[in-house]
Amino acid sequence: MPDRIIIDFGDEQEKKQNPEEERIIIELDKENKKIDVGEIEESREKKILNSKINSFYKGNSGLSSYFESGLKFPEGIEKGFRIKYAIDLGDEFLNSILENNRYFILSSKSGKIFLTDRFTGKINESIFFENETFEKTGLVFENRIYINSLKKIYELGKIGISKQVIYNSSDNQYIWSNLNRHEDKLVFSEYDPGSGNASFKAIRLNENHGIKEFNFKVRSFLSDSLCIAFGKSYLLSDEKLIEYDFGKSSGEIFDTGIETNENSIMFFSNGRLYLTTSANELYYLDLPSDNYKFRYTGIKDPYLNSAGGFADNLFTGTIDGWKFFKAGGMQVFRFDDESENKIECISKNVLVVSQKNKIVFCNLNRFQEAESSIISSENENKSEEIVSALISGNEIAVLTTSGLLKVFTNDKLNIHI
Fold first, then answer.
1. Is residue 8 assigned to a domain?
2. Does 172 fall in a domain?
3. How far apart are alpha carbons 83 and 357 in whole angstroms?
4. Chain segment 43-58, per-residue pLDDT in tens
5. pTM
């Protein structure tokens, strides 16, 4: 290879008269610079494939609906959300989407688990569990998948087809809560509605699957929400708070001092355990606590269907819109709507709200800005209602009760002519 490039201009006569003015000389390095393989940035897909992902019901072990993500709202008329892919699974779903490094994981009422390639939308596996129904949400721990039916907890193998029963409940007992996790322990509640006997259980996720438990009695109801905070788990039963200390392997029962019911919402965020009353008031308990007395936030609505938050931010879904508060109870923003709005998931930049079969992405940095999409199938006789949404990276996955899965990404480019 030559050491330099010479570019001449003009005719031969001009070049003889002014040889230096009519040419450009480009000197080349004698040694070609080698590209360091370490300098090549890993693709987003490869980063996900090489990562160990944990996935929970409502985004985290505190059930606050917050998903750790750098997802940004695509501001301006030139940008927007687009549908990356859509799949009709042709089944009925009552629980939430889970994810690991390869799949979006969906478990149906009819006993099927769908492992959908998160990058392409292709269904890699559809695993049928005979005589099972999946109503509650399992979890993912470092890409390992755990799914619970009414009586059993399964661990799916790496390939997906292999399945192992790691827990089987006793006669008349049902797995009542969605699954949760503390360190290497899988935690859940179990309940016999006939006798009122209930228990909190923690299973070690090792070869022995050792079990710790705390038994208690239920008078009228046991919530299916199980929160974890500061090394303790929390369950709501009647007007009582069931606390289990993982460090001490023991449990205690405290009166909440407020009236609650089976529809009461409980979640942990920013050092506080939040709980809604039968009158749709939002109370909180600072953790760790000495006296276990809940305090009123000042937030109340005639009808609350959902609540969650992060840092000192709280969001509530209502019969006629959604609201944003600071933890002290001050209202920052409210969106009034003719339809019921439900908080599906939250990130620091984007709030995802559902309105039956419409999904709405709200910009938390500019409240007046939002984008929506109708989730519908080609079958006109099919009634669609959103049951779950999940934020992962720069994508949002949305699932309906009738099995429509749509995945949105924030990289749409609008061309205006």
1. no
2. yes
3. 15
4. 889 999 999 999 999 9
5. 0.87
